[in-house]
Amino acid sequence: MDHSPWLKLFKATVIAVVFFFRAFLAIFALVYRPSTMDNKNLTWKKLSSHYIHKGPWATLRSDRCEMPNGHIVEDYYVLEYSNWVNAVAITEDNKILMVHQYRHAAGIVSLEIPGGVIDEGETPEQGLRRELLEETGYLFDDFEPLCTIYGNPSTADNQTYCFLARGGKKVQEQHLDEQEEIIVETFTIPQVKQLLLDNKIAQALHCTGLFYALNKLGAL
């Protein structure tokens, strides 16, 4: 009796079993491999802190810290700011409100979305409603949170709250601070997308808010 067909089938079965077993082990290793980075505590311990400057818009402090490996970091400088809020603000005729204003540190006239500092005692939404009314004269009541981000978590401690605001109506003229000069302009959604592509919006926090808003609107 010729057993060669059965022998070939047996060999093929053994090869297939070995192949699938090795594949299983490879997948298992990928899924269940412990990550040393995930399990490692990267947080520094603050040992002491003192203030170098305190001002109405920014405060500078110096921290002495200990890293998880025991290394001591002397004089790590941190800028303390109030939290900020901004919005991709869409009017009742579906235009996006943008503002032009001079930014002295960069020495540029910057095209931005409206927003500003959250005053003490305000929620982000309350601060945003006030800022929109003061900077643009438009009243908004429909706010949807988009994201909460840090401008520079390496050196600054404050957060920026980004919203999508809809249905804005012009109800008054601007009410600006003494050192504010702001020109308001409206753009269509395609125009704003082109401004981003042409690198015409220099404020990184505002580019982030616009990205989240356009994604929410299905306009990317």
Q: Descriptors for this entry?
A:
220 residues; alpha+beta; 5-stranded mixed sheet; 3-stranded antiparallel sheet; 36% strand; elongated
Give the secondary structure arrangement, pairings included.
Elements: H1 4-32, H2 36-39, E1 45-54, E2 59-66, E3 72-80, E4 84-91, E5 96-103, E6 108-112, E7 115-117, H3 124-136, E8 138-139, E9 142-150, E10 159-170, E11 183-187, H4 189-197, H5 204-216
Parallel strand pairs: 4-10
Antiparallel strand pairs: 1-2, 2-3, 4-7, 5-6, 5-11, 8-10, 9-10
Short description:
The protein is an alpha+beta fold and 220 residues long. It is built from 5 helices and 11 strands.
For the record, give the distance between the C-alpha atoms at the N and C termini, rounded to a whole number: 70 Å
SS-based class: alpha+beta
Please outline the major beta sheet: 5 strands, mixed
Portion in helices: 25-40%
Poorly predicted runs? 16-21
Number of strands: 11
Basic shape? elongated
- Proportion of beta-strand residues: 35-45%
Gyration radius (Cα, Å) is: 28 Å
What's the number of helices? 5
Mean pLDDT: 88
The string of secondary-structure elements, in order, is HHEEEEEEEHEEEEHH
Name the assembly state: single chain
